[in-house]
Amino acid sequence: MIYNLMLFVDWPAESLKDTVTLCVITDDPDVSRPFAELAGKTVRSKTLMTQRRAPLAKIDDCDAVFLSGLDESLLADKLASVAGLPVLTLASSPGSGAMIDLALAGERIVFDVSATRLRSAGLSLASRVMQLARKVHH
User: Fold this and answer.
1) Which CATH number belongs to the domain containing residue 40 in this structure?
2) Is the pTM of this model over 0.90?
3) Could you give the CA distance from residue 126 to residue 10 in angstroms, rounded to a whole number?
């Protein structure tokens, strides 16, 4: 789901390097393991790199960040550290303050989008993906 969402994000041209780096911030190796399989795929004609990082590691050099299993305070600190930067933030905690919040609804994964946070970072998400969101916050 996260990779598919990334395919529909536009980053400012000057912010992307030769690769797109997706950082997975979690203490749980079971959460980060599937992301390793994404390495080498393509996002916006760039090679995707994935990195698992410890919850206290810096994230401002990532192009996208998935945050999972963090306490509220640490999650808020992480999101604040990249506020206004062209870093796509995704979290597994509904109402987290990330640009895209993922949640389970029965057996389906649903997502909420903060269009305001995307805009403030200079990012955009394709309108057809926004239409699939459970909620879009403007």
Assistant:
1) 3.40.50
2) yes
3) 8
